Amino acid sequence: MAYPFQLGFQDATSPIMEELLSFHDHALMIVFLISSLVLYIISLMLTTSLTHTSTMDAQEVETIWTILPAIILILIALPSLRILYMMDEINNPSVTIKTMGHQWYWSYEYTDYEDLTFDSYMIPTQELAPGQLRLLEVDNRVVLPTELTVRVLISSEDVLHSWAVPSLGLKTDAIPGRLNQTTLLSTRPGLFYGQCSEICGSNHSFMPIVLEMVPLKYFEKWSSSML
């Protein structure tokens, strides 16, 4: 999860998030090089009065500054499209979970099991146990297996919500009357926190999401105890 005064992204927990972090660094380096070049040219023009007129009017220069930006855009667009297609791909999910947004809590249903449903409310500040995080802890965590593809079906029963878990690279809108889907795959066990990312009313800030990723054998024990 994020820590105070953090400037970068949270540590990646899924292959998709690792790809997003890599693409972010790739695009940021291109922006940094362009900014440095433009700043150098501006400072050069401000500090010297000498101008080479034949260079400024040359067709070669105009050709370069037309083709070069097109090449840069291609270098940014191709990795971006690749990641977009990867995020939309559904690869034989092992577990399916349906998430419904409400004002102001989440409800979950494990569709592969009978009667495995529960609501997930934020724990009020005055009821927090030592070590629990304010505005992020819930009474019922979503327990899922690691290293398995999980399909998440997302919708809403009232207004627009958004189910987002930054460390997994997930952010999917919950829209009334529409069923969106996304997939997640965690490469390591742990607790991963998220929040509703769509302004949905007065208690929008109080809709945390907590995913508890565990090995498969522990997930099977948990699901058996819940039935």
Automatic annotation (TrEMBL):
PROSITE patterns: COX2, COX2_CUA, COX2_TM
GO annotations of cellular component type: mitochondrial inner membrane
Keyword Amino-acid biosynthesis belongs to the record: no
Topological category with respect to the lipid bilayer: Multi-pass membrane protein
Domain Cytochrome oxidase subunit II transmembrane region profile: 1-91
Domain Cytochrome oxidase subunit II copper A binding, first and last residues per copy: 92-225
Note on how the cofactor is bound: Binds a copper A center.
Catalytically driven reaction(s): 4 Fe(II)-[cytochrome c] + O2 + 8 H(+)(in) = 4 Fe(III)-[cytochrome c] + 2 H2O + 4 H(+)(out)
Protein name: Cytochrome c oxidase subunit 2
